[in-house]
Design a protein that fits this description.
The protein has about 200 residues and is of the alpha+beta class. Helices cover about 20% and strands about 35% of the residues. The protein is globular, with a radius of gyration of 17 Å.
Amino acid sequence: MKKLVYILGSLFLLSAGFAACSCESEDPPEQPNSHQDETPVDSTLINNHSSKVDSTGSYTVISTVEVSEEVKAFFDEALPNENRTPAFSFSSENETEFIVINSQGELESRYKGEKSLPEIDFAKYTLIIGKAYMLGMTYHVESLEIHKYEYDQTLCVFTDNPSGLFWMAYNMHFWGLFPHNNMMISNIIVITKEEVS
């Protein structure tokens, strides 16, 4: 029943969007729930420290590291989950995008807010910030993981089930601090609880 409501809601949003929008393109924006083959131009390399192999043995899961309350509060405000303007600059407006940051200088160049940036030891850690262009209801990011395969890595953004009011479309922001590593992330996928249950 939930899926039927979600599908009907999505169809309503798409039809309302087409009626209200005078876009040059006939195609709706692509949902960010499948692998994207592009690597962001300014992504940098990232290496495996503390990680575990999943039960099938097909990839290694690299999880985010614990951060202080100060760092968490800063990024939660600077990259809001809701449809608010982030304090970081991205290169595209309505597309899924992530940036791999490996130095304080890179962090400063992306930040456009007023507060002081937290100090991060980039010799030990890599910061990933990004946004996923979402259609339909409101999602909240629950966790991030890097899935390391033999020849590449995929950034996985896990969200809760959609809730709240219908949005036409919005950017869901996310961030995570990982052990420093040196392998390129080539894909991103957004996974909701509904898809894994």
